[in-house]
Amino acid sequence: MRARAAGARWGEAAKDLSDGVSRVSLWSALGWSDVRQRYSGSLLGSFWITANLALMAGGLTFVFAAPLGLGAGRYAAYVTVGLVLWHFVQGALNEASNLFVAASETIRNAPMPLSVQALRLVWRNLIVLAHNALIVPLVLLWAGIAPSGLWTLVPALLLVTATTFCVALLLGLLGARFRDVPQVVANGLQLMFFLTPVFWLPQTVGGARDWFVAANPIFAFIDIVRAPLIGEAPAPTSWPVALGVAAAAALGAAAAFGAWRSRIAYWI
Amino acid sequence: MANLSLRGVTVEFPLYQADARSMRRFALQGALGRRLRTEGRHPAVTALAGIDLDLAGGDRLAIVGPNGSGKSTLLRTMAGVYAPAAGTVVRTGSLTPLLSPGTGIDLAATGLENIFLIGMHQGIMPKEMRAFVDEIVEWTELGAFIGAPLRTYSAGMMLRLAFAVSTAVPPDILLMDEWVGVADADFQLKAYERMSRFVERTRILVLASHSEALLEIWCNRAVRLEEGRIAASGPLADVLEAQRAGR
Question: Is A33–B108 a contact, with Cβ atoms under 8 angstroms apart?
Answer without folding.
Answer: yes
